[in-house]
Amino acid sequence: MRRDIFQAIADPTRRAIIALIAVQAMTPNAIAEHFDTTRQAVSKHLKILSECDLIKQEQQGREIYYLLEIEKMKEIDKWLEQFRKIWETRFEQLDQLLATLKKNK
Amino acid sequence: MRRDIFQAIADPTRRAIIALIAVQAMTPNAIAEHFDTTRQAVSKHLKILSECDLIKQEQQGREIYYLLEIEKMKEIDKWLEQFRKIWETRFEQLDQLLATLKKNK
DNA sequence: ATTTTGCGAAACCAATTGGTTGCGCGTATA
DNA sequence: TATACGCGCAACCAATTGGTTTCGCAAAAT
To answer: Could you give the ipTM of this predicted complex?
Structure first.
């Protein structure tokens, strides 16, 4: 199936995982210990996150550490850009309205 | 079921709908005409978007116009904030690294 | 060499999803 | 009043989801 970042962050557990490994790379087991779920379930989430390149793995002895591809997160920011323009425009309009009201008083 | 904005924007059709009505409020039929889907399917998407307060409706004669609650979009931006801090820090670190390399040359 | 451990893949289940079709209600238009 | 249209709801289907349990593999520890 087609996966993208927005699918990936739709799940609260995955958002938590992202926030977790953003601070420090971790193994699937370590991640699972932070939530009330099993290692396999975490593994499934990690797979989804991997599929859309939001995380990458790093071998360390016999353990595999997962870490966040922070660059990929910027794509969400990029998508938000179009709306940021809108709400900034609205703010300016509100600002102008207030200025006009003040002037006419 | 529990719904949130991240669930809402997970679907590409819904993101398209959001972008569409961000520019101009529209009726379900008008929205459906922009995509290769039926009015009922659009209606379902609108329901989901409504459930998490991303859009609101406005009666206009016998038609109902849907418009974006741009303020709600800021919540995504708010969530991104924690990661923005990270990538800005990394950028600074890269900047410092480059400066050090230059200095040592 | 044997045991233990961590890991991912596969099979399976219950719940949710997007989509369709069909129905009934309310509002304009004739 | 009668007709046509736009809308949302309910029922249904195929596909996907998150979760569990089970299994086999490979690396470390004994």
So the answer is: 0.82
